[in-house]
Amino acid sequence: MFMVESSVHTDHKPLETISKKLLCSTPKTLQRMFLQLQKFTLVVKDKSGKEMYVSDFLSRAPLLCCDSSVELPNYPIFVVRQQEALFKECENIDLLCDLSVSDRRLEQIKTETAADESLQCLLRVVGDGWPDQKSATLMSIREYWPFRDEITMQDGIVFKACRVIIPKSMRKKCSTEFIHLIKELKRVCEKLRRFCFGPT
Asked: Same domain for 32 and 53?
């Protein structure tokens, strides 16, 4: 598989779009998997599960036991044990650990997210699956359609890739605080220009 373009069929349609994005734009829970797969030249294609006969058969008829005494050749392939370990790592990824947000603010975001009807509707659609057409999406969440494959949820907080989606009730306040922060930063930069010098 090295240096040879291979096709990977999946019945999870969003993966086809996610695989074409930059690594930093993919959900954090998938980034580790894509990093490990970078050594291969893969083209992800969407295919209905009922048309993937081999994988469908293997998922329904797994081996009941495995004879550890039989030595298998050490091929450089993505073996099942590595895949299981990777899934376990992905399940344990904490999206909140990299956020520079106080615990008080996180609790506020959780509370407002639970009270935000559009975000709750968004989470239901993410769990059940997006419709095939944008026109079939509810108006309250249609603004999220362009990046629907990047949306995840952890501990009651909604994420777009690695960034928090702020509930509507908090957006005005957050924007005001952000503008105030930018003004303070500009004042600091002006003071540095007055008192500090360094040839470029």
From this structure: yes
Backbone angles phi, psi at 184, to 5 degrees: -65, -40
Q: How many structural domains comprise the chain?
A: 2
Q: Are residues 14 and 73 both part of a single domain?
A: yes
Cα 160 from Cα 33, distance rounded (Å): 18
DSSP β-bridge partners for residue 44:
8
CA 27 to chain centre: 1
Q: Which domain holds residue 50?
A: 5-91
Residue 56 belongs to a domain: yes
* Helix, strand or coil, per DSSP, at residue 179: helix
Compute the Cα dihedral for 70, 74, 78, 84 and give only its sign.
positive
Query: Which of the listed residues 30, 65, 91 is the one where a domain comes to its end?
Result: 91
Residue-wise pLDDT tens digits, 46-103: 888 778 777 777 777 666 655 555 565 555 544 555 666 655 665 566 677 777 778 8
Whether residue 26 contacts residue 150, with contact meaning beta carbons closer than 8 Å, is answered with yes
Torsion sign across C-alpha atoms 63, 66, 70, 74: positive
Output the furthest CA–CA distance in the chain (Å, rounded): 75
How far, in Å, CA of 19 to CA of 23, rounded?
A: 8
